[in-house]
Amino acid sequence: MRSVGLKVLKNRLAEYVRLAAGGETVLVTDRDRVVAEIVPPRPGRAERLGDALLADAVRKGFVTPPLVGEGVPPRVPVARISELLLELAEDRGDR
To answer: Which helix (H) or strand (E) holds 56?
Structure first.
């Protein structure tokens, strides 16, 4: 475990983040008082930011994951192609 003052941390942040990524805990101090910790990611934490944010949203209940085995619903056409082409021709006719 290491400790670093705010001023030194500001100037050498990348170095201390690399130490934390390597498994070391870094205590951040302000006038000899511990104010924060930079710690390695906990086991099971996703490596990609998007995956970590999605997992956090699921934990907080903002997002509900799909049920296992539900699969993708079958595709149902919105309209027949002939209807779409007719509407498109009408829209273009106004120009």
So the answer is: helix 49-60
Task: Please spell the DSSP secondary structure of 27-48, one letter per residue.
Answer: EEEETTEEEEEE-PPPTT--SS
pLDDT in tens, 31-63: 999 999 999 988 888 889 998 899 899 999 999
CATH number at residue 20: 3.40.1620.10
The model's pTM: 0.58
How far is residue 77's CA from residue 53's CA, in Å, rounded to a whole number? 34
Burial tier of 35 (Cβ tally within 10 Å: 0-12, 13-18, 19+): exposed
Total domains, the chain? 1
**Is residue 94 in a domain?**
no
Please report whether residue 37 resides in a domain. Answer: yes
Determine the length of the chain.
95
Is residue 69 domain-resident?
A: no
